[in-house]
Amino acid sequence: MKKNRLFSFIALVSLALLFSDCVMREMHESAEGSIDASKNRSSGPSPVTNGFAVGGNVGYLMVEDFQTGMAFNSGGQHKEFDQPDPLGENPAGGPSDGQRTGNYSFMRPRPVAPPPNYWSLSEELEFVGKGNKTDAGGGDSETDHLYYLELPVLINYNMKVNGGNTLTFGAGPYAAAGLFAHYSSSFQGQTMSGSLKFGSNADIPRMDYGLQFKAQYMVCPKVSVGLNFDLGLRNIGDPVDKAYNNSLGLNVGYRIK
Questions:
Q1: Where along the chain do its domains lie?
Q2: Quick one: which H or E segment has residue 12?
Q3: pTM, 2 dp
């Protein structure tokens, strides 16, 4: 129950900030994909060793730059009003008709370019594959592939480097819901495969959560490359031999907006 509340809290906070005009200045949207290497972080008396399983993810990323000041116009509209006529023939204060050159901005400042270094908030909805390869010795092994719908919410610090390209470092929590999973194993020369179940009384807990760390570089205005690391904090193993999802990914992004 606590894990479901954590996931709901992260989703609601991120959506509230996404549609807020009071905190954010500008929003960017990107499509991202990555190739990931996943390996469980384990603790317990089990003698088996863990190895990497290769997976990947695709996601839709939304990034909002923090404003330098607060705006009080909740409608989010940029409005212009006429200045007083120097000859006193026409009153000021009406909406601009586009004919007069002397207009002033009211309620909300014009959009400006972000400063060289600035903060941003990002939320990404990802279809992500994680997993683990377990080696029991003697040629016996099992590889698990776990697929989640994941929502990371990161605070990012952005810097202008190399003539104006953006280098970004981000960190924050993630929550994920298990969708489906499968395994393949080799035991005493016999190969087997099948599906794994998510759930409270099944093979793997459905909810996962942890921290995500990300570094990203914009190689041009539309394309980025980066690294992301998920540090799982939810035990997906048993109470004795604990296991946590860890994954490292190389990602490529394309800015849509």
A1: 2-71+117-255
A2: helix 2-18
A3: 0.72
